[in-house]
């Protein structure tokens, strides 16, 4: 009699986390003892963000469940109500799929809904990216809450691993796996530059900036003011071309989208705004542009492995370990402009090309997949607090 396969369910909510999870999903799909399940929610199912659930299927994976949670508006209350809808839909989806382990990544508010549903259903949770600090966003609270709801942990550095253990997690259930996105940059076969340019209809060069600005959920200033400050700074570099990608759908994300679309429409000869590049085009673009500008975690975690500078604006990523290629700046126009000028300098480009990325490990997806497939399930049912 064949041994029953272990059902491992990956929940993904946006282009960003699927780009990180795809190699892990590929490892799990190859494991003969694993049945892979995938649930898509939130931005994956929204046409205005590129309907990126199609990218999962284009990668050759089956999406077993789709859980809609589109908000009625863009205010924090709307996002809180959407999270409640996500929890209800996720409870029904997980009850149908009956996975042995649910795998989550990161710190998005919808993942708190997923973890809450899984916990009440008695399904063990594995979490990627615990132990990190981002003081400028509510993601910080959510990330730490996910750690306490999870039984298996995959951190991106040894410092983060120690933090998770400090939170009372069993050291034998916490792996320093490295950051999946860094592994992707090193191991993905990228698109040729001409093919990428043809795909997006935009020319890329070392004077091109790849720009992604997300709302800062703990900011005292409106998102519109922060975005306006960045756009005024960009105006000071008329020789530079701008490739904008949309922000996530945190509160006020639509405000930023409207502003960058309007800016790109006013400057069509040097600007392009796209909802999503997708994993392959995004990684390929990093090898063609001169710098990344904004406040995305990718600029701090993954971009250093592309050998280009990052301009990290404001407090959203404050607290993360950062490579020497990351230039932090305040979120006002003068500070952003000074940081962009520094990023475009020969000294910064040379430093970025030679810097070490603290998030790199050579076997990230395999480490995660082995632990998910091999950890005895009966050890995950009850968590014991690890006292230091």
Please summarize what this structure is.
This protein has 388 residues and is α/β, with parallel strands linked by helices. It is built from 15 helices and 13 strands. The strands form two sheets. Strands 3-2-1-4-5-6-7 form a seven-stranded parallel sheet, with helices on both faces. It has a six-stranded parallel sheet with strand order 10-9-8-11-12-13.
Description:
The protein has 388 residues and is of the alpha/beta class. It is 43% helix and 15% strand. The strands form 2 sheets. Strands 3-2-1-4-5-6-7 form a 7-stranded parallel sheet, with helices on both faces. Helix 10 links the parallel strand 9 and strand 10.
Query: How is the biggest beta sheet arranged?
Result: 7 strands, parallel
Indicate the radius of gyration in whole angstroms: 20 Å
Tell me the total number of β-strands.
Answer: 13
Poorly predicted parts: none
Straight-line N-to-C gap? 44 Å
Question: What general outline do the C-alpha atoms trace?
Answer: globular
Sketch the topology as an H/E string, one letter per element: EHEHEHEHEHEHEHHEHEHEHEHEEHHH
The chain-level mean pLDDT equals 95
Fraction of residues in helix: 40-55%
What is the helix tally?
Answer: 15
Helix/strand-derived category reads alpha/beta
Q: Tell me the quaternary state.
A: single chain
Widest β-sheet, arrangement of strands:
3-2-1-4-5-6-7
* Share of β-strand residues: 15-25%
